[in-house]
Specification:
This protein has 76 residues and is mainly beta. Helices cover 0% and strands 55% of the residues. The protein has no helices and seven strands.
Length: 76
């Protein structure tokens, strides 16, 4: 199956070192599909696909989606 250019994308910008972006798979059992670790200032553009149904962001980051933006943070 070819990628659909109309699939939803998210942009994650790390506001601190060590931000985790984790792709979670579809199916009867949710499994970790892929993990990226971002350092401050790094940007990741991620896409939901036939295999990735959820994306988890852990750490201090700015997240932009087609429906708006938000920030994640860690309690310290």
């Amino acid at each position: 199956m070819e990628p659909d250019a109309r699939s939803d994308f998210i942009v994650v910008k790390a506001l601190a070192n060590g931000v985790s972006v984790i792709g979670l798979s579809r199916g009867s059992d949710t499994k970790l599909n892929h993990t990226e670790i971002l350092d401050e200032g790094e940007v990741l553009i991620a896409q939901f696909t036939e295999h990735v149904s959820a994306i988890k962001v852990r750490g201090d980051a700015q997240i932009l989606t087609s429906i708006g933006g938000l920030e994640s943070y860690t309690d310290e």
